[in-house]
């Protein structure tokens, strides 16, 4: 799973990315187009359930879920027409599963704003418009190709033509595709296009150190806008989080306490990104390791087993599952089993967030 960090130049994208990935490299220069190729990093998804499990099952190592992030160069007005190497950057966004849009919600005369003044709603509108224009261009090009194929009687091409026309009609109302309902078959017909405005979006309000909770008027504007489209907002002070990320564990705790934070805002952001992507975690626990595994919401037990190893899915027999709450009550797996709390689930079982599992399978030859 992969999320792309996007935004106008100088909104704090690279500072945020470096903090998230605990990078100690120099910050990007203070001018537009400072990044040409996307930077990629892996971010752990904080989950206190891992620590709770290890109170009773002590492993040699703990492995959290992970999220891949891509820092995509600043998009500017006209990106869909190639401004600022826009087409190259938009291609990078097509390859990710979700969009994290960093919106500047702080004033700083020393940091140039590409538009000359700080206006988060204008920034959001600029990015959204460029993504919609890029989608329209791609769909119009794809429509011509699909129509030519459809003339031969190809049923899939005919269906694709219908779906593309639906999408173009929707985009013509200046609404992103994520606000349009498509049947599963329709989504499949255009899945390979990587349509930008169909991707889930999370707004990251980059705030000043005096507004860590994001209660100021600029963040309020973003929250009101996001609420209307069913999106979420996470306030983050990228500058502070970058400083925190540079510290060792003890100094980090002191700085968090001094700032009145229980945990880094980046931890909240990582978890919310995970949720926006539509994923959940299940756990395996033993003396070797306690690990969080990632599956989409709605995944079945065999599909979850397949995340560990494809042979587990192919030879799936059953899953033995218990909850963290049962572990905290009964203390050991043996006592969970004795209490009749160890559930045996088959191929039709839909995984629940937080399930602790053992999978039984036949070896596949």
Chain-wise SSE layout:
Elements: E1 2-6, H1 13-20, E2 39-45, H2 48-54, E3 61-63, E4 65-71, H3 86-94, E5 98-105, H4 120-150, H5 155-171, H6 184-190, E6 201-207, H7 217-229, E7 232-236, H8 238-245, H9 249-258, H10 265-276, E8 279-285, E9 289-296, H11 301-308, H12 310-314, E10 316-322, H13 324-330, H14 333-338, E11 343-345, E12 356-361
Parallel strand pairs: 1-4, 1-5, 3-9, 5-6, 6-7
Antiparallel strand pairs: 2-4, 8-9, 10-11, 10-12
Helix pairs in contact: 1-8, 4-5, 5-6
Count of strand segments: 12
Mean pLDDT: 85
> What about the largest sheet?
6 strands, mixed
Over the alpha carbons, how many angstroms does the gyration radius reach?
A: 23 Å
For the largest sheet, list the strands in their spatial order: 2-4-1-5-6-7
Low-pLDDT runs: 23-37, 82-86
Structural class: alpha/beta
Helix content: 40-55%
Classify the beta-strand content into a percent band: 15-25%
**Helical stretch count?**
14
Distance between the termini: 30 Å
User: In sequence order, what are the helices and strands, one letter per element?
Assistant: EHEHEEHEHHHEHEHHHEEHHEHHEE
Identify the overall geometry.
flat
